[in-house]
Amino acid sequence: MAKSDNAREASARSAGFPLSSYGEDVFNEEAIKRHLPSGSARKLLATINDGLPLDPSIAEDVAHGMKEWAEAKGATHFTHWFQPLTGGTAEKHEAFIEPCGTAEAVSRFSGRNLIGGEADASSFPSGGLRSTFEARGYTAWDPTSPAFIKRHGNGATLCIPTVFCSYNGAALDAKTPLLRSVQAVSRAVVRLMGMFGRPKEHVSVTLGAEQEYFLIDREFYVKRPDLLQTGRTVFGAAPAKHQQLDDHYYGAIRPRVLKFMTEVEERLWRLGIPAKTRHNEVAPAQFELAPMFEDINLAADHNMLIMETLRLVAESNGFVCLLHEKPFDGVNGSGKHCNWSVAYGGRNLLSPGGSPRDNAIFLTFLSAVIRAVDLHADLLRMSAAGAGNDRRLGGNEAPPAIISIFLGDELSAVMKEIETGRAGRKTGRTAMKIGVDTLPPIPRDATDRNRTSPFAFTGNKFEFRAPGSSQNCSVSQTVLNTIVAESVDAICDKLEAAGGDFNEELQKLLQRLIRKHKRILFSGDGYGPEWPQEAAKRGLPNMPTTVEAIAAMSDPANVALFERYGVYSAGESASRREIAAEDYRSRTLIEGRVALEIARSMIRPVVADEFSRLAAAIATAAKDSIRAGVKGLRALVLKLGAGLDDLHVKCERLDKTLRRGDPRGVTAAVRDLRSTVDALEELVDDSRWPLPKYREMLFVY
Ligand code: ADP
Ligand code: MG
């Protein structure tokens, strides 16, 4: 970075950054009011804030205002910004410039440009939803996520968040089903609240996604073909010291990293992304960024931008940001904890209530979530599936592949009271009566948190910890919203059918629900070796790999569930399963090929060289009748020789499984090959080892 840039940066900070720049690059309420005629501004804001349908007649005004605003910020292009099923985001820029006459041009951006676009979508995954001869995909403006400006060195682009679908309306993206699932859960919650006598209000589903990542020096990265091509190291011996001392977690952040983080935050704040916390994570070179929670659609978009910003800013700081779930074996992997809650008219339904009525609502909603997670654990597991996350889940430092719920001591005791109809020993009162009692205080103390649980109640929200660091949150949140919608509806059906005294019926219903679904509640150690056995006894599904997990998408009951709630059509479900399976297969095979190539063309020559050098030394010693040292050399040569033989056998085996194209076989063969390579790493002269080592990558930055 040039000196003048540094100076400018420093002065921006002293001039009151970030407050003055927060949201500066977002077409926010202030910009809307400033750049739109008041009638159109009012209508647009009603769509954004209250979820009213968009009035198409304001499109021209909005487009014009948006363009003026964007051009004033240096934008020359616009793009629809969407999330195809690649796991990333997509954009195709179009200049505002429109030639007119000879060597003259005007700038133009019409309502039509804003509202919809056509894209040649033949190269995006569609999972068979669209044949290549009708390869058009359509983008459509999502006014609930504001347009924003992306800046680069010498210009800027206006980005318009859109959904992406095929000609006949089938969703080809991550956002469309999320929006549909929010509608589904909103409808169900309005229905439930109606039963509690509450008038219709706006339902907001919120998400706070904590993002974990690794930073390593770029110098190391470019020397590791595995990192370059797969985002993870397929080889690497464990360093003597890694995370045993817990000295990285929450440790003082090194200045170079802090500079990076500060730059990331400055960019995010400009985009109105409420980056709030930053800290060192458990593994060396691992960090976390968490924004304040927001409306789920916005939070999901923002998470995509956070990942992009982390990558870009890392690059300009000589780092590489690794978002893979398990870049390094033997130390913690990276997750994306998704904190989720639902508010009705601004009141969080997962916040234990202060009045008996609020308490009843809280317990009912809580029970609905418990029922949903128990009945649809397979879908939740599926929503976190992927080749990268397979390496992390169940790895003794991340939630297991078995879905369960942690409630905490106090809430567990309350649930027990409801279930048994008897008060716990220490409460000093009779059992909880729905509609009469309030909850005992539920502490929101961090010490009460069970970090081994994949789905934990944390005071006023659920934290789904299974999703991986690289995954789009929309996938898991779409499932969560849908299964909760179904569960809330099922409770409403039962209450409607019951017809007696509401509170008594509700008490009986909750009792039944807890009895039926309590097997999903687990407060013990989710990493412990006993849990899988206990879970099996309880009949909880355990799906260790993506292969089993994505099969949930083919279960006719699940397909019907998504169809009933208008979230995925049967065709969309099938296409998503197809895409997930293909993604898993491709990533696994790429990993296998990379491992094979490194082993054959980088590791083997170095080991063979070392072997010959030492063997020659032994021969020379024999010729000159030197005996000292020969014993040591011989021992080493024998080990290297055995390693070379192993390497040969294991490479051949990997090659064969690759030819068969069997992903699970490849994973096993790579693991097997790795044990040989990692053992050789410790035998070969350090200065000759061709790959940067863990002890360098994880500590030198
Ligand atoms: P942790 O101790 O797990 O880091 P925090 O309290 O820092 O937990 O919160 C983690 C995330 O949860 C943040 O993004 C925060 O904004 C979000 N969060 C807090 N309350 C809610 C809520 N009611 N709904 C959704 N997310 C929430
Ligand atoms: Mg957390």
Task: Walk me through this protein's architecture.
- It is a single chain.
- The radius of gyration is 28 Å and the shape is globular.
- By secondary structure, it is α+β, with helices and mostly antiparallel strands.
- Helix content is 48%, strand content 14%.
- The chain folds into three domains: 18-173, Glutamine synthetase, N-terminal domain (Ubiquitin-like (UB roll), Roll), CATH 3.10.20.70; 182-568, 2-Layer Sandwich (Creatine Kinase, Chain A, domain 2); 586-697, Four Helix Bundle (Hemerythrin (Met), subunit A) (Up-down Bundle).
- The strands form three sheets. Strands 10, 11, 12, 13, 14, 15, 16, 17, 18 and 19 form a ten-stranded mixed β-sheet that branches.
- It contains 23 helices and 19 strands.
- Strand 18 and strand 19 form a beta hairpin.
- The protein binds adenosine-5'-diphosphate and magnesium ion.
- Adenosine-5'-diphosphate binds next to strand 10, strand 12 and strand 15.
What's a quick, concise take on this entry?
This protein is of the alpha+beta class and 701 residues long. 48% of the residues lie in helices and 14% in strands.
The helix/strand class is alpha+beta
Extract low-pLDDT stretches: none
- Residues in β-strands, percent: 5-15%
Describe the largest sheet: 10 strands, mixed
Average pLDDT over all residues: 92
Record field, number of beta strands: 19
Question: What name goes with the CATH superfamily of the largest domain?
Answer: Glutamine synthetase/guanido kinase, catalytic domain
Overall CATH class of the largest domain? Alpha Beta
| Helix-residue proportion | 40-55%
The end-to-end distance, rounded to whole angstroms, is 18 Å
Tally of helical runs = 23
CATH topology of the largest domain: Creatine Kinase, Chain A, domain 2
